[in-house]
Design goal:
Layout lengths: L1 H30 L12 H22 L1
Amino acid sequence: MAVEGQRDTKNTTLILSVKTLIDSKLEGYHNRDRPPWNSIGLSSPKLLLKGYRKYSSIYRSSNLNS
C-alpha cells in the first residue's frame, strides 16, 4: 500500500510538471505576436491591478480628509 501511495505521488508530480511545461510553451506562442506592454515584462492585468491599488489609496485618503 505504501508503494502504491508513492507511485500516485510520483504520477501526480509528473502530471503537474508536464502541465506547467505545456502551459509555459503555449503562453510563449500566444504572446509572440503581441508587443510587450512594458519593458519589465508585466502583463496587462497585473499592470492594471498595480495602478488601481496605487490610485485607489490616494482617492480614499483624499475623501477622508474632506
